[in-house]
């Protein structure tokens, strides 16, 4: 199929607006997958994604569509992640396309993430086709959705396509619009090779596989290729297309989308955003926009049972093979023993990794409170970056501290405005502006510390707006802040894994909450257990777990033996999930207590 009949596009949609369902309908209509094989939501391969209804990694699929003009077109759908943690991946996927379908749920209207991704697409000069989905729903308001597309995004919505991905209505119109409105890719087969890596995966047989869009030149098996960010050279073992499974081909030309396998051992060598060129006839300049993905959120991960350390190490290593943005290195904690300091793109990424470790690798792990990277200027003139409370310098050595800030956009129904403004205030936010979408919905923009967002902004926002608000944020830079390290002491000993960094004004409140919470979860001992919170050695809150007075079994006196047995078993069960800190038994949920407050 000549380049003039190739169309590369992606789908932009807020979570649950119907991206995966519409993608499935497109695959069905073009017979890309036989109906027998068709299971719902082909694009979301990972179980976890299916369960959470989110698309975590970008995927690609190729379709052949015979259009009304009688000609066959090759359509490449590049699926993008729908979550703000993965914004960089989204931007690389967009850079591989000429057009985007913008799906708006007719019963919900535009959401913050849709807006953010549409702006990204406009920056990349993509042709955008607005699609109003779920028109079958009784609560659908397609005209209102159209109006929002025009007024908020500024796109002409006159030619918006009305669809129901559920019933299949409008699917053919979508395919025709892709062919007619999205331009064919430009590029030249004769120029030196430049292929953009927009995603990668790890295959046990093929190694790290790069998903690419060939921008210029062409690529064949046996060719020597060079990764332009590292200058590493590999010999192409196999190239192919997504059908939707990987299918080898002999040639990929400018404008095409496919994969490249070159016996690469690790996805670290197939970095998203990097440019692949020909090793013998290299391009002068790489494609623009490459950034190394940097972790923004860090936490400690420890095996719940000490002996699982090696399994945790192995599991993290395996996950990293397919997730170049996952960072980890060994660390030790006096309280938790041997574990790892892990870095993530954001909180969702962290959750996903934790869940995969538990589910796919059957591990029980304890995570410590997540932290952002603080920059600390010390009185000796040096500047250090701190992502672990353990490394936080003594207050006397600190000249000033800077923390990362974001611009947060929150879209919500006007009735919750008061509640959300209060919340943002509590989160140390400063309002930058407010924009009415219509008389019922509004966008608020705030300057806010990233650490407040990762603390629990998402959850709070959801509960205070009954799930009607959506959030998007973008890192804007570092600002000076009065941060302190809060230590928790049990029976006079600091429990390093419970320390965290917090704003000075919030330290007292948090200290009180945590000591109270710990008092609830720590069982009574034979002696009194003081729980204290301290900043730089100064105690700012205290609770006490009273000493145990009688034997628990005393209760069972006269009782039947089976009840006694049960009680003993229950105690044993409880013991297993305990950590011994000094001479205090700390239940594992205590670590969770610090994470999930309020
Ligand atoms: P995604 O998160 O954007 O990929 O959304 P999904 O495709 O997973 O769809 C979210 C939910 O909306 C699922 O329960 C779908 O069955 C449902 N859905 C998708 N499209 C339609 C539609 O046109 N009409 C109705 N009634 N439901 C739809
Ligand atoms: Mg989906």
From TrEMBL:
<dbReference type="Pfam" id="PF03144">
    <property type="entry name" value="GTP_EFTU_D2"/>
</dbReference>
<dbReference type="GO" id="GO:0003746">
    <property type="term" value="F:translation elongation factor activity"/>
</dbReference>
<dbReference type="InterPro" id="IPR038363">
    <property type="entry name" value="LepA_C_sf"/>
</dbReference>
<comment type="similarity">
    <text>Belongs to the TRAFAC class translation factor GTPase superfamily. Classic translation factor GTPase family. LepA subfamily.</text>
</comment>
<keyword id="KW-0648">Protein biosynthesis</keyword>
<feature type="binding site">
    <location>
        <begin position="16"/>
        <end position="21"/>
    </location>
    <ligand>
        <name>GTP</name>
    </ligand>
</feature>
<keyword id="KW-1003">Cell membrane</keyword>
<dbReference type="InterPro" id="IPR013842">
    <property type="entry name" value="LepA_CTD"/>
</dbReference>
<dbReference type="InterPro" id="IPR035654">
    <property type="entry name" value="LepA_IV"/>
</dbReference>
<feature type="domain" description="Tr-type G">
    <location>
        <begin position="4"/>
        <end position="186"/>
    </location>
</feature>
<dbReference type="GO" id="GO:0005886">
    <property type="term" value="C:plasma membrane"/>
</dbReference>
<keyword id="KW-0547">Nucleotide-binding</keyword>
<keyword id="KW-0472">Membrane</keyword>
<dbReference type="Pfam" id="PF00679">
    <property type="entry name" value="EFG_C"/>
</dbReference>
<keyword id="KW-0342">GTP-binding</keyword>
<dbReference type="InterPro" id="IPR005225">
    <property type="entry name" value="Small_GTP-bd"/>
</dbReference>
<keyword id="KW-0378">Hydrolase</keyword>
<comment type="function">
    <text>Required for accurate and efficient protein synthesis under certain stress conditions. May act as a fidelity factor of the translation reaction, by catalyzing a one-codon backward translocation of tRNAs on improperly translocated ribosomes. Back-translocation proceeds from a post-translocation (POST) complex to a pre-translocation (PRE) complex, thus giving elongation factor G a second chance to translocate the tRNAs correctly. Binds to ribosomes in a GTP-dependent manner.</text>
</comment>
<dbReference type="GO" id="GO:0005525">
    <property type="term" value="F:GTP binding"/>
</dbReference>
<feature type="binding site">
    <location>
        <begin position="133"/>
        <end position="136"/>
    </location>
    <ligand>
        <name>GTP</name>
    </ligand>
</feature>
<comment type="similarity">
    <text>Belongs to the GTP-binding elongation factor family. LepA subfamily.</text>
</comment>
<dbReference type="InterPro" id="IPR000640">
    <property type="entry name" value="EFG_V-like"/>
</dbReference>
<dbReference type="InterPro" id="IPR000795">
    <property type="entry name" value="T_Tr_GTP-bd_dom"/>
</dbReference>
<dbReference type="InterPro" id="IPR031157">
    <property type="entry name" value="G_TR_CS"/>
</dbReference>
<dbReference type="Pfam" id="PF00009">
    <property type="entry name" value="GTP_EFTU"/>
</dbReference>
<dbReference type="Pfam" id="PF06421">
    <property type="entry name" value="LepA_C"/>
</dbReference>
<dbReference type="GO" id="GO:0003924">
    <property type="term" value="F:GTPase activity"/>
</dbReference>
<dbReference type="InterPro" id="IPR004161">
    <property type="entry name" value="EFTu-like_2"/>
</dbReference>
<dbReference type="GO" id="GO:0043022">
    <property type="term" value="F:ribosome binding"/>
</dbReference>
<keyword id="KW-0251">Elongation factor</keyword>
<dbReference type="InterPro" id="IPR009000">
    <property type="entry name" value="Transl_B-barrel_sf"/>
</dbReference>
<dbReference type="GO" id="GO:0045727">
    <property type="term" value="P:positive regulation of translation"/>
</dbReference>
<dbReference type="InterPro" id="IPR035647">
    <property type="entry name" value="EFG_III/V"/>
</dbReference>
<dbReference type="InterPro" id="IPR027417">
    <property type="entry name" value="P-loop_NTPase"/>
</dbReference>
<dbReference type="InterPro" id="IPR006297">
    <property type="entry name" value="EF-4"/>
</dbReference>
<protein>
    <recommendedName>
        <fullName>Elongation factor 4</fullName>
        <ecNumber>3.6.5.n1</ecNumber>
    </recommendedName>
</protein>
